[in-house]
Amino acid sequence: MIPIDVLGVFFVAAIALGLAPGPDNIFVLTQSALYGRLAGLIVTLGLCTGLIVHTVAVALGVAAIFQTSALAFTALKFAGAAYLIYLAVQAFRAGSSKINGNDSPELSLTALYRRGIIMNVTNPKVAIFFLAFLPQFADPARGSVPGQILIFGGLFIVATILVFGGVALGGGLLGAFLKRSPKAQVWLNRMAGIVFVGLAARLAVAER
What we know:
Elements: H1 4-19, H2 23-35, H3 37-60, H4 64-68, H5 70-94, H6 109-121, H7 124-133, H8 145-178, H9 182-204
Helix pairs in contact: 1-8, 2-3, 2-8, 2-9, 3-6, 3-7, 3-8, 5-9
């Protein structure tokens, strides 16, 4: 059994990491501002589904492939970068017509959820981070290490939902304010496009 103090330290660390500016929380912020807080919350659930994939991959040892194989790492990161460029093009072409005046996203909830999953799963840096971070808190003396990693991964996901949920709510309020002006709506889409391009560039040049 994992001691409560170890779980507490891990949870605090996970909260701190979630608060640090990064591609995922910036993505949640832009989607919330564009489509409303519900969209941000759904994207958050998609991102956390991706974290489940990474957690299982670490527990099974699959994530090590991205640390040892340059080909696998490069292929996945460029797939993720291409997807972000695709989202950037959509944002630049949207104008003001793609933004509603309420919290109901024009994109379907399924599409938003899928965006979150793809955004997270196609980032090999997340897999390598989990591979380095989660095992630090596992102790073979406490039993199954893969089992402990699954527990820590689940706790990390809870922390992520709490932090990113707050980001989604804040982004939704910002978007609701900006939606009062058609010109602001256009600039909001353009800013989102710039953010997506920046995230794509950052992912494309990432190294193991």
